Each structure stands twice: as C-alpha cells, then as structure tokens.
Amino acid sequence: MNASQHEKWMKLALVEAERAFDMEEVPVGAVVVKGNHILGKGHNQCEMLRDPTAHAEVIAITRSRAPCAPAPSSIRGLSR
Ligand SMILES: [Zn+2]
Question: Is 57 marked active-site?
C-alpha cells in the first residue's frame, strides 16, 4: 500500500471517528482494508450500545465481509 492509498483509508477512518464524536462517543474510527477494497468500517458505540467492547476496530472487523478461515481440523473435532 502506497502513502496516498494509506492516507485515503485513514481519512475514511477519521470520518468514522467524526461519527463517533457526533454521537458523544470516544472519537475513534476504523476501517478494515484488503488491497483496494474496504471490508468493514466502524466507530466507537460503547455508550449507545452500553457495551464496553463496542470499539471501532471490533465493529469494523465484525462488519467485515471477509470470510473466516476454516478452523484447523484439530479444533473442528472438538465441536462434535
Ligand atoms: Zn479499541
């Protein structure tokens, strides 16, 4: 990722942070990027959701459309 691409994604993270600020949340935003695509984005929502884990990065990862890698077979076997 070159510097101008990085700056573009960081500006989008700042837009997310501004959304948090406007909602009287701690002003943090995050974007999850792969290559030239946004997979997910989010801003802090701890106050609104009354959830101390509702951090920007957690929401961005949760909203990410990236498929999860399958669990290793040694772990899958535990769920039977
Ligand atoms: Zn956090």
Answer: yes
